[in-house]
Amino acid sequence: MQRDQALAFAELAADVLTALEQHVELPHLLLPDLRAPEAPDLADIAKLAAEARAHFNLAAGPVPHVVRMLEAAGVLVLRLPEISQSVDAFSAHLPTRPVVLLNPAKGDAARARFDSAHELAHLVMHFDAAPGSRIVEKEADSFAAEFLMPADEIVEELPRRLDWERLHHLKQRWGVSLKALVYRAHHLEVLTPNAYRRGMQQLNEWGYPEPGQLTAIEAPTLLQLTFELLEKSGYGSDELADELHLPAPVLMEILKAGSDPRPQLRLAQAGQGR
């Protein structure tokens, strides 16, 4: 039921963005079509992740900002509203444009980045798959790991033993969790099975949030910036709510879900009073 509520919220948000698009030019949809073959193996998925990185013109190394990349490709990214905090991140191809909904309740920047890459996998690989399929979810995890940590780039950086200092450094560098790094090292056969088991046991003891958190969670800004641009032309929230036949509080909740919640620093121009 909560997933259906979240999807209905996303559909309303897409309607808001469509209305804004009548007044402001928005990014065109530029997602690659990388439909996975039937029963893809890990090599197939790694190839698709590499094609996706090439499509987005990503340089070697970490992905700078996954959410910003999605928005620049025309994807509507939203934080799930409070009514849906038990729903995990998910995505959908809506009639107007694809949407990714992220769960801010996790409060972990590394996990949020992985969630965004996981949902990108669904958008570019899985078009008709049933939601919740364990096979499909495992494929999306494999895609996200390769997209964020390409094997040929990270394999030489991963420690050959359980070195938490090194893993913490890599967490900050690549923007992924310690757990994702330990699993990646295991998958690439850099860590021995015994070291992998000890690493996972230690991570389970630490629980969440992991030690050494990243700075800020990546936040969407497309709705926020579009509305702010429109507001400068004199078209405010009241006019937009009337156009969409939406109650003003509902509209503001949607705009909030597509905005960066952090306060913005405004610097005074030279010559202005203090």
UniProtKB/TrEMBL annotation:
Pfam families from the UniProt entry: Peptidase_M78 (PF06114)
Domain of life: Bacteria
Location of the IrrE N-terminal-like domain: 71-185
UniProt cross-references to InterPro entries, sorted A to Z: IrrE_HExxH, Rad_response_metalloprotease
This protein's name: XRE family transcriptional regulator
Species in which this protein is naturally found: Kribbella koreensis
